[in-house]
Amino acid sequence: MKSFLYPKINPHSFAWVRPEGRAPEKVHEWIQPLDGAADPEKSKEAEIIVVGVPLSRSSISASGASEFPDAFRRAWKGFTTYNLDEDIDLAKMKALDVGDVPLHVTDIRRCHENIIEASEALHSHFSNSKVCAIGGDHSITAMMVKGLQKSKPGERIGILQFDTHFDLRDMSDNGPSNGTPMRNLIESGVVEGSNMYNIGLHGFFNTKDLKQYADEKGVNYITLGRARKKGIEATVLQCLDELSAKVDTIYLTVDMDVLDIAYAPGVPASTPGGMTTAELLEGVLAAGRHPKVKAMDIVCLDPLKDTNVQPTVKLGTHVFLTFATGVMLR
Amino acid sequence: MKSFLYPKINPHSFAWVRPEGRAPEKVHEWIQPLDGAADPEKSKEAEIIVVGVPLSRSSISASGASEFPDAFRRAWKGFTTYNLDEDIDLAKMKALDVGDVPLHVTDIRRCHENIIEASEALHSHFSNSKVCAIGGDHSITAMMVKGLQKSKPGERIGILQFDTHFDLRDMSDNGPSNGTPMRNLIESGVVEGSNMYNIGLHGFFNTKDLKQYADEKGVNYITLGRARKKGIEATVLQCLDELSAKVDTIYLTVDMDVLDIAYAPGVPASTPGGMTTAELLEGVLAAGRHPKVKAMDIVCLDPLKDTNVQPTVKLGTHVFLTFATGVMLR
Amino acid sequence: MKSFLYPKINPHSFAWVRPEGRAPEKVHEWIQPLDGAADPEKSKEAEIIVVGVPLSRSSISASGASEFPDAFRRAWKGFTTYNLDEDIDLAKMKALDVGDVPLHVTDIRRCHENIIEASEALHSHFSNSKVCAIGGDHSITAMMVKGLQKSKPGERIGILQFDTHFDLRDMSDNGPSNGTPMRNLIESGVVEGSNMYNIGLHGFFNTKDLKQYADEKGVNYITLGRARKKGIEATVLQCLDELSAKVDTIYLTVDMDVLDIAYAPGVPASTPGGMTTAELLEGVLAAGRHPKVKAMDIVCLDPLKDTNVQPTVKLGTHVFLTFATGVMLR
Amino acid sequence: MKSFLYPKINPHSFAWVRPEGRAPEKVHEWIQPLDGAADPEKSKEAEIIVVGVPLSRSSISASGASEFPDAFRRAWKGFTTYNLDEDIDLAKMKALDVGDVPLHVTDIRRCHENIIEASEALHSHFSNSKVCAIGGDHSITAMMVKGLQKSKPGERIGILQFDTHFDLRDMSDNGPSNGTPMRNLIESGVVEGSNMYNIGLHGFFNTKDLKQYADEKGVNYITLGRARKKGIEATVLQCLDELSAKVDTIYLTVDMDVLDIAYAPGVPASTPGGMTTAELLEGVLAAGRHPKVKAMDIVCLDPLKDTNVQPTVKLGTHVFLTFATGVMLR
Amino acid sequence: MKSFLYPKINPHSFAWVRPEGRAPEKVHEWIQPLDGAADPEKSKEAEIIVVGVPLSRSSISASGASEFPDAFRRAWKGFTTYNLDEDIDLAKMKALDVGDVPLHVTDIRRCHENIIEASEALHSHFSNSKVCAIGGDHSITAMMVKGLQKSKPGERIGILQFDTHFDLRDMSDNGPSNGTPMRNLIESGVVEGSNMYNIGLHGFFNTKDLKQYADEKGVNYITLGRARKKGIEATVLQCLDELSAKVDTIYLTVDMDVLDIAYAPGVPASTPGGMTTAELLEGVLAAGRHPKVKAMDIVCLDPLKDTNVQPTVKLGTHVFLTFATGVMLR
Amino acid sequence: MKSFLYPKINPHSFAWVRPEGRAPEKVHEWIQPLDGAADPEKSKEAEIIVVGVPLSRSSISASGASEFPDAFRRAWKGFTTYNLDEDIDLAKMKALDVGDVPLHVTDIRRCHENIIEASEALHSHFSNSKVCAIGGDHSITAMMVKGLQKSKPGERIGILQFDTHFDLRDMSDNGPSNGTPMRNLIESGVVEGSNMYNIGLHGFFNTKDLKQYADEKGVNYITLGRARKKGIEATVLQCLDELSAKVDTIYLTVDMDVLDIAYAPGVPASTPGGMTTAELLEGVLAAGRHPKVKAMDIVCLDPLKDTNVQPTVKLGTHVFLTFATGVMLR
Question: Would you say the C-alpha torsion A318, A320, A321, A326 has a positive or negative sign?
Fold first, then answer.
């Protein structure tokens, strides 16, 4: 039976069997699927909302990132809800998996519209929750943010981005692909360039004109080299401080290609010289703790390219849990 | 410098260094790229035209079939032009690689239109040549055939299809995806169902309603089991015989998922119980020899999923060379 | 909520979302999980019972065959219920997935006892159904058959086995491992050697003393070479004919290592020179059609060793569907 | 011919050809197999004893860690005996490979008893040597320590553990699996909780009740985060200092899952956010130098899951050589 | 201690532990290493001589075929000595593994000379045995045959070759590489072209000039297509019949690239459209039975490229055992 | 048409299609192939010369490093010319890819002579450019340096080496293999031991006698441990300072096996405990900036062993671009 969010959100394709008569210990026992019988009002208590956005046909290179939402759900079984570093148990927070945004095979524009609508619906209904979008490729970020804005008209939105790339490509070339989300948001007037903070740029992975565009629009960026020197946590805190002074709501987007390719074999666009796992987790935790961060996404992770023991899928899942830890520590 | 076919066809991304002062021995020495200085009239002498159609974002499942045209070109180096079984040398035929159909990242409809235009342009210009489209997913077949028809208005076109699937899905669900090309051609009136012959259906890979649709439209199909009993070559010959009586031009489409998955690890939709390599090559050779077969394609081969020594990319290349052998044997 | 079979059978770990308001088209829409609210009496209508037996720590070599039941369930999504070769739709038969036999990590004897109990419970309750055990390693066969016998005391049981090995190793060496099931059944008096028929032996994969033991006990075996000469279907039919004259119930066991290693990279014990996929499917279909075949299993398939596109998991699933087709054709 | 340790220890399955007439340069030339003709008394001179414990059917998840002892031996060829960092040559120490503990396929309890007996025999005979057990899964640690205690009744034993997990699961659930060794030792009174020091815990890989049990029993643990801040070497030294004041003998157990999954693709339980190779080697060297460390093990490394060039097998071997370096530096 | 064949043959790098007090059951228990204490005269009783020829730096393409001799020896453990198809036990024949031909890293000519010397020494000493050379790449065949001829001056030698290629390339281009062995033997006068029989040629894998050279020299070849029509066994028997009438000794060379790439992922030069495993084993068995076949080799199998469960290494080992079966059946 | 460097340098096997009418943005658009029509004088303006040296049959272990030059060229497409960290655009420097050194299949000595001649020709013609040799195995370094010396008689040459090994093996054992280049240069009097600086030695990967030889010859080495303590950049700067005082020209050789195996799965000789990517790039950048560094090479990277998304090929390419950045920053 479909939930009250249907047809804006589809149920996802499978559900874990949950424990009876004991508290959840593993993540798959903790995160509740939103089933058809759910009470809309009661559902608003959830602090964490998970939504799958399995779109990657908008990716410039062939991508299986569409498979990450399900791979992510299957990976839950390998994680407990208890964070030993912080000595807190996520199971004390309510978390809902509302399902996947419905998509179309050959009409990408419609996919993007569906994501905007789904995001608006989620942010409207779950107005006190943190909405976590599990991509999919980076084109979804522009759509999730547009939906967020529609749900909170008049609010200023800022973005904290972990990325090896600017993602500021010109949409007139190839439409709203995964190379364009930040430009999309600037050009559509949803987010000002000066309210965007990108951490992690490095190497030979951006053309010079993108850097020039970023400068023109006042996009803030801290290369990985500089962030390392200052400390990742300190860098994130400073970005959030600056953003807080300017915006009402902060959206965190984690492009997994910010990672060094040794840590992320399942992210085809990851590169040599990127972040380590420890650095990314440190940054995401800091972001999760900030009270203005209301939404986040994890994008560009292609499970079909991951190696044998699924290191990247596990890492993507860990990023989400680390964000949730930050939320709980607020 | 771009060729006279530009902007309908782009130059491909790289070119092999060719031999000086001796006849070609390997395939990459034989097939000439169509460069910017080429004389349009002289180019018409080519008997074989290769065109890349690197589109797979129209695929229902995540697919890297878009990478096959380049993988195919890189594989040429591993094949000689001399066919020992038939004792003929393909190098005596002229073959041109005209490049790739230009595509768009986020507008699949425009991609399809581009393919139709490119096909029409190729069939108009190279009216005596065999046009070989290297996909890409199966959605391209409908577009290549539509372009063929536009170039030869009034001609009746028939199709010989090697496939595990009908590819007769309803376009109203998800548009012209890789599950729909045959229905697309029927519904658009380009090819009649009764002029379609499908060889290779088997197992649990088609829903019942597709079979009912096929029956309604008079689509002809010979399951793999029946084809094996009769003999693959005999089956193909009989289909071509029947078709010849009804149409002016026959289009051959080779969906590589017709193969058993043991032979085609790089075709995600291949299945247990499919054709062997020897069977497919036997069928393609027979088709290549038939005078009414004027065009063909090879689709749904995803090199990103192939195993270590690239067996499927090599097999896809062999299918093309076998077709060319058939053409030369006419 | 646990079903009426609990604690003999656990619910499995996840469930597919099922279609609303239309007939099932894919296998994951067809096979119903046995949920806690199920009516025991009504459940008996099911013609096919699937039970997972995820035990492989009893395997001589390190094995991940314990992961097959879940891999098998996940693979359903890739198959329709409609068998095109036979033009029948499995969805017209009722099929239940009752879950997994509960197992213990370090007490293999207890695991085996649990399997016997589960098998007895299933055969007692679903006395008109075909019980399909999804292994796991081959040690489970002895236990499934013992449970079958307990549920039908006094009946004579025969076995049709597809295997590269005799599986007649001496249990006094290493207990009831995956090398011993047939000897286990002979020595425990559950099945007579002369009521066992093994198809598929070949090559250098059995020691001579096992062959001598087989001869002493009157075990029937047809090497792959001889079966090929006679025809696989004809061989199976003859074995079933002979068996029918001697026993009340026939148990079919498919050790996936009977396959040639080119067809079954995910079966570590598969070998060069084994059966092709087409041969195995032909044999299983013939077995499935025989009215005395009341139970079957599929064993020794290790999804952790399968290659990229999961050819062996898909093949194992196809074996099950082919058996079900046989049942429906009876 | 079997050695004087038979039947408590079997010869291993193969032996390297050793150099004639020159000193050993590679590890496979240095470590001597204990052959049947060896003089028991003379053998006691060995400072390093290697014993294989190829048991992993006691692992909660399907594991091929049983294959590590042989993979470890095959890897010796890739390492010299000369440690360039410390400018010492291990070849000056005598090292013996005594073979493997005999195991049973289906009786895990018997396997565990055999390990206890083998450990006792080794520690009794080689009372001045360091016994290095090459696992196998982590269940073997409890057994190796029990054997050690039997050989030295009355001595207090402490444990230094590198691990992502507590390994304090309740044995009443699933017996002495690889999740339980530390609890096993506490509950059997062999090692007090307060004499256990765990370095490396982090993330979401332990349930909260295990942490509570650890606290109740006074188990000492330093999370990876805290160890990093203090320095790995300093952390190890402080643990060893504290332990030295309380116990007579220290046992070092290296669960390879303490490593970040990027460094240990061949350890299925390794996780994102774990130790780097450099950190683990630094810790193991410090432990190896401590005079009270008399025994060690390396567990949970599954060579069947390692990637192409065997990074994890090489790393496991390096851990052993680093420990031996520490011993030589004492 | 080195054997009496040293320095022409080195001991191989490791030895299996052999059974005590019982007959061998597995291949690694059967084939005896030739150790330093072996009695030269007594050693002549061996019917089968195995020698490793780990040379592949003479390969045109980068090759790890040098690793096959050791991979072959490690694979023995997976095979029994008992051939069930023929009901014979190889353990009744004496088999010796004499070790490896010593090779040089940067002087390929010296490698080739060493192989000639080793072959001569083996054929001289073991004049009644069948010498089986385990390559290495195909360049070794010319050297093994030259050594054979030196040991039997005046005898006429013929060759039966399973191969996808002629291996008749011109040595003046790149020296005696793996593309040249047959031409090498013709040009050096060791074997006449008319005494060479090649079975398995097919497809686009030979340039036309090689076919012309073959025709000029009278080399006999039966394409795979023709051999299939006649039957592989019948084809082999006819070739051997013809050869017997012309020569004293027949050398069998099995280039593993004759196999279809689906069966031989570990042979980089294998191709789509090649032999099946069953066909090759049928051919090798027939050759092994012929009394004039005195030597054989297996070449061009690169274990570094094999897939997970080592299908090609297992198949290469099976080819050897099948040949030995033929010898025993004489 | 072959360039003026022919026959000392062959054209490489393929060429990228270059942009028309706009500045290059990607590396494959920037680096110009040296085609046959190039003006020799004008070509001297190039600051960076790329030459492929696809030799790895001189490698001690089986190696596919011969495939790196082409893999390197194919990887260019994935990198922009703009270095964001330093805010400079490489496209402002002229770079030429002159092709590959011609090699022989079976005569390694001739290969080495060809490399010396090619190096001499390049350094003579492009006397103000930085010549970057893309290996191939480490044996090529001795040859490239010998050619450099021939082109600049009387100049003193020094070497900065990143390596896990000394590469000082004795050539009398196995000739000028990849284990010998530094010794080769010392013994041939081309470079004095005291003018060699090796950074990165660690662990158990050099025999003691090599260290003793290094000490005798005054070779300078800084182990990875010591370099880390001092800082990689500071270590490199100090080595270059010392070298500058002693030599006229510095040659940088980057043996990719200096990397930790987690970062370099495509370097079979990489080891646990090696450099991180960030460390190597830091070191190479510092070296590239030094005015006396006139030539460099990248060796021992085997693309055939790289994992799925080609992390090591990408890293090798990044090393080159980082060196070029250093050159531009001079």
Answer: positive
Closest residue of chain B to C312, computed from CA coordinates: B272
DSSP result, E66-113: GGHHHHHHHHGGG-BSEETTTTEEGGGS-EEEEEE----SS-HHHHHH
What SS3 class is residue E326?
helix
- Tokens 């002369």 locate to C194
Q: Do D80 and F204 touch (CB under 8 A)?
A: yes
Report angle CA E24, E25, E28 to the nearest 5 degrees: 75
- Model pLDDT for residues A93-128, shown as the tens digit of each residue: 999 999 999 999 999 999 999 999 999 999 999 999
pLDDT at C1 over 80: no
Residue A2 C-alpha, separation from nearest chain D C-alpha, in angstroms: 32
Place of tokens 């890819």: F97
Rg (alpha carbons) of chain F, rounded to whole number: 18
Beta bridge partners of E15: D15
CB F131 within 8 A of CB F49: yes
Distance CA A198, CA A183 (A): 13
Element (DSSP H or E) covering residue A73: helix A68-75
**CA-CA distance, C295 to C318, in Å (whole number)?**
17
pLDDT tens-digit series, residues D39-72: 999 999 999 999 999 999 999 999 999 999 999 9
The nearest alpha carbon in chain F to D264 belongs to: F262
Chain B residues whose beta carbon lies within 8 Å of the beta carbon of residue A177: 105-106
Instruction: Judge contact between C322 and C284, C-beta under 8 A.
Output: yes
* Cβ-based neighbour number of residue F271 at 10 Å: 25
> Can you give the residue ranges of every domain in chain F?
27-329
Which tokens go with A23? 């508290």
Which residues of A fall within a CB distance of 8 Å from B106?
A: 58, 108-109, 139, 174-177
**Which residue among D211, D272, D305 places its CB closest to the CB of A318?**
D272
Say yes or no for a CB contact (<8 Å) between C201 and E281. no
Which ipTM was obtained for this model?
0.96
Amino acid at site E162: F
Q: Which residues contact F196 (CB under 8 A, 6 or more apart)?
A: F158, F159, F161, F182, F185, F186, F219, F220
Pick from B67, B68, B106, B304 the residue to mutate for testing the A interface (most A CBs within 10 Å): B106
Residue of C nearest to A70 (CA): C74
Name the stretches of chain D with pLDDT < 50: none
> Which of C64, C106, C174 lies at the smallest CB-CB distance from D175?
C106
Helix (H) or strand (E) holding A297: strand A293-299
Torsion sign, CA atoms D36, D38, D43, D48: negative
CA distance E25 to E82: 7
Q: Put residue B57 in one of left, alpha, beta given phi > 0 → left and psi -120 to 50 → alpha.
A: alpha
Reference C69, options C252, C324, C233, C298; nearest CA is: C298
The shortest CB-CB distance from B272 to any of C87, C89, C314 is to C314
| Residues whose CB falls within 8 Å of the CB of residue A8, separated by 6 or more in sequence, listed in order | A101, A102, A114, A117, A118, A121
User: Between β-strands C220-222 and C196-199, what pairing exists: parallel, antiparallel or unpaired?
Assistant: parallel
Nearest one of E253, E257, E81, E252 to E164, comparing CA atoms: E257
The DSSP code for A66 is G
CATH number for region F27-329: 3.40.800.10
Distances (CA, A) of A102 to A99, A301, C15, C21: 9, 19, 20, 18
- Residues from chain D contacting residue A318 (CB–CB below 8 Å): 203-204, 271-273
pTM for the predicted model, two decimal places: 0.97
Which DSSP string do the residues of B74-137 spell out, in sequence order?
HHGGG-BSEETTTTEEGGGS-EEEEEE----SS-HHHHHHHHHHHHHHHHHHTTTSEEEEEESS
8 Å CB contact of B211 and C263: no
